[in-house]
Amino acid sequence: MAVAEKIRSEGEAQEMHIFEELDKGIDDMEAGRVIDHEEAMRILKERVNQYAL
């Protein structure tokens, strides 16, 4: 496989993964599985801090 084709293929796979995760989030919202903004930001900060150098 040529390098350009491999890069394109990997990019398309990443895009598909992002869209799949967005679809899951939309499904959760439609099903009423949501949390408030403050809680979401707290969770995000905790996860970011896990990986901070």
DSSP strand count:
0
Q: Can you count the helices?
A: 2
Radius of gyration: 16 Å
Q: Could you give a short account of the major beta sheet?
A: none
What best-fitting shape do the alpha-carbon axes yield? Answer: flat
What is the CA–CA distance across the termini?
36 Å
Strand-residue proportion: under 5%
Element-level helix/strand string:
HH
* Share of residues in helices: over 70%
Q: Could you say which structural class the secondary elements and strand pairing correspond to?
A: mainly alpha
Global mean pLDDT: 90
Structure described in brief:
The protein has 53 residues and is mainly alpha-helical. It is built from two helices and no strands.
Task: List the main descriptive attributes of the protein structure presented here.
2 helices; mainly alpha
